[in-house]
Write a structure and sequence with these properties.
binds zinc ion, 14 helices, seven-stranded mixed sheet, alpha/beta, 477 residues
Length: 477
C-alpha cells in the first residue's frame, strides 16, 4: 500500500514536499511516513495561501524529513512543520544544515517584520496579520537536523533508507536515493531536488560548487525537477556583459542593484566582481552586501571547501575571504542598511531576497527603481507572480507595501548564473541512467516547462513520463 503523495511543487516551482507513506491506515500509525523536502510556497497569492493550510496528514505522525538543499522553496516550511508537532530527524548534508541555520531564522524574522508592517499600515485583510512562523520558531527546529554525508546510507524510518548523491545545484545540495522495503518488495526512488548544471568551466562559467550532478543508480521511480524544462541557457561567459553593464551605469552616475540569494549566489557574484575590479574591467566603486546574514553567509561558504569547484578553489586561494576585501562592505545591522540609502555616488548593492519577495532589497528598489540612471540586474530564476518576475518582465510599476513604485531604472538579466540544468543538460544527465525508471514524475516546474520537458524526454528516450499533480497519490506496491 506504499505510495508517494505530491504535497507541493506540483504545477509550480515552489513548496516542494513529497510524502512517502508505507502505512495502510493513511495516518502513519502502522507504517512509516517520510517527507522529502518541506518547502515554502512563494509567488502568486493562490500559492502562498497554501502555506497556511495544514498537511493532509498529522505532522506529529511523520517519522523523518529528508532535505535536498537549503533553498526556501525546499526547506522554508520546516519551522511550520515543527510548530505543528513534527519531532523526528531532519536529514541533510552538513553544508545544508549550516545554511538552514541562517536562512530559516532570517525567514522567520522577515515574516515577523512583514506582519508588523501590515499591522502598522493596516494593509492586510487579516486583523492582526500574523507571521507564518517567528524567528524563535525557526530556531526551535534547529535541534532536529541530523547531518548525513554524501554517499552515506542512512535509515530514515522502518523500511525506508536513503543516501545522498551530489546534485551540483547549490552549496550542500543533494539528490535523495531512497530504498523502500515493504511487503517483501524493494523499490528504489530518486528525488532529484534541484539539479545543477553539467559542467563548470565551459557551460557554466563561474559555477562555485561541484561540477555536474552525480550519475544515479537505477531507480524504479524518478521524481524530477523541471524548472527549465523549456529553456536552453546561454553558454557564453557572463563576465564581459556584467562588466559592460556596470561600467555604463557608473558612467551615467547611477548605481547597480542586484537582487541575489544571500548564500552562495552572492558569494559567486562577489568573487566575479572582485576579479573584474582587479583586472580593471569594472571601476572600484563601493560594494554593499546588504543582508542581516551577510557575514554568516560568507563564513558558511568559506567553511565548506569540500563543495567548491576547481575555479572557486583557485579564486579563494588567490583572493582570500570577501570579508577582508577593501571596498566590500557587509551590512549586517539595520542601521548600516539604512545608511546605504543616503549614499549618493555610484555603488553596487547586492541584497536579498533574490526574487524580491521580501527582505531589504525591497527598500533599495523602492529608492532606486524610479531613477533611470540606475541598473537592476537579475541573476536568478524569477518565479511567476513574484515582484522579481514583474520587474524583469517589463512592468511599468510594481507594488511594495501597498504602494506602487514606478520602474524607470534599466533592467537586465544574466541567465548564465542559473544553478538549474537546462533542457539539453537534463537530457544528457538522464542518458547516464543504467536503465529507464518504470515511470518518471515531473515536479517543480511551471505547467509549460513541465509539458515541454515531458515531450522532450518522451521523444529522446521513449520513457514513461507523467506530470505530478498537487495531492496526487502514486501507488508504489
Ligand atoms: Zn534550489
Amino acid at each position: 500500500m506504499a505510495y508517494i503523495e505530491f504535497l507541493g511543487a506540483a504545477g509550480t516551482v515552489t513548496g516542494s514536499k513529497h510524502l512517502i507513506n508505507t502505512s495502510t491506515d493513511g495516518d502513519g500509525r502502522n507504517g512509516a511516513q517520510v517527507l522529502v523536502d518541506c518547502g515554502l510556497f512563494q509567488g502568486q497569492k493562490e500559492w502562498r495561501e497554501r502555506n497556511w493550510q495544514d498537511l493532509p496528514i498529522n505532522a506529529a505522525q511523520i517519522d523523518a524529513v529528508i532535505l535536498t538543499h537549503a533553498h526556501l522553496d525546499h526547506c522554508g516550511w520546516l519551522p511550520r512543520l515543527v510548530k505543528q508537532g513534527f519531532r523526528g530527524p531532519i536529514f541533510a548534508t552538513p553544508a545544508t544544515i549550516d545554511l538552514c541555520g541562517i536562512i530559516l531564522p532570517d525567514s522567520g524574522h522577515l515574516q515577523e517584520e512583514d506582519a508588523a508592517y501590515h499591522n502598522k499600515k493596516q494593509s492586510s485583510k487579516h486583523d492582526p496579520a500574523l507571521p507564518l512562523y517567528t524567528e524563535a520558531e525557526a530556531l526551535a527546529c534547529q535541534p532536529y537536523f541530523k547531518p548525513v554525508n554524501i554517499g552515506e546510507t542512512t535509515q530514515a524510518a522502518a523500511g525506508i533508507s536513503f543516501q545522498f548523491v551530489r546534485a551540483a545545484h547549490i552549496l550542500g545540495s543533494a539528490m535523495a536515493e531512497v530504498t523502500l522495503g515493504v511487503n517483501g518488495m524493494q523499490r528504489m526512488l530518486v528525488f532529484t531536488g534541484d539539479i545543477g548544471r553539467l559542467r563548470d568551466t565551459t557551460i557554466a562559467p563561474g559555477k562555485v560548487v561541484h561540477s555536474g550532478p552525480a550519475e544515479p543508480g537505477a531507480p524504479d521511480l524518478l521524481v524530477m525537477e523541471s524548472t527549465y524544462g523549456n529553456r536552453t541557457h546561454p553558454t557564453d561567459d557572463p563576465r564581459p556583459q556584467l562588466a559592460q553593464l556596470i561600467r555604463q551605469t557608473v558612467e551615467r552616475g547611477g548605481s547597480v542593484i542586484i537582487p541575489a540569494f544571500a548564500v552562495e549566489r552572492t558569494q559567486k557574484l562577489l568573487f566575479m566582481l572582485k576579479q573584474l575590479m582587479e583586472d580593471g574591467q569594472v571601476p572600484r566603486v563601493p560594494v554593499h552586501v546588504d543582508s542581516p546574514m551577510a557575514i554568516g553567509a560568507v563564513q558558511v561558504f568559506m567553511k565548506h571547501t569540500e563543495e567548491f569547484g576547481e575555479d572557486t578553489k583557485a579564486m579563494v586561494q588567490r583572493w582570500g575571504s570577501p570579508l577582508t576585501w577593501q571596498g566590500f562592505n557587509f551590512d549586517s545591522t539595520a542601521e548600516q542598511s539604512k545608511k546605504v540609502n543616503d549614499l549618493k555616488y555610484p555603488f553596487i548593492i547586492v541584497s536579498s531576497s533574490g526574487m524580491v519577495t521580501g527582505g531589504r532589497i525591497q527598500h533599495h528598489l523602492i529608492h532606486r527603481l524610479p531613477d533611470p540612471r540606475n541598473l537592476v540586474i537579475f541573476i536568478g530564476f524569477q518565479a511567476p507572480g513574484t515582484r522579481g518576475a514583474l520587474i524583469k518582465g517589463g512592468a511599468k510599476t510594481v507594488r511594495f507595501f501597498a504602494e506602487d513604485v514606478p520602474v524607470r531604472a534599466q533592467i537586465a538579466a544574466l541567465e548564465q548564473f542559473s544553478d538549474h540544468a537546462d533542457t539539453p543538460e537534463l537530457l544528457t544527465w538522464l542518458k547516464t541512467f543504467p536503465k529507464p525508471p518504470s515511470v518518471t514524475y515531473l515536479v517543480h516546474g511551471e505547467p509549460a516547462a513541465a509539458q515541454q520537458l515531458q515531450q522532450a524526454i518522451t521523444d529522446a528516450l521513449k520513457w514513461k513520463v507523467e506530470i505530478a499533480q498537487w495531492q496526487q497519490k502514486v501507488q508504489l506496491t
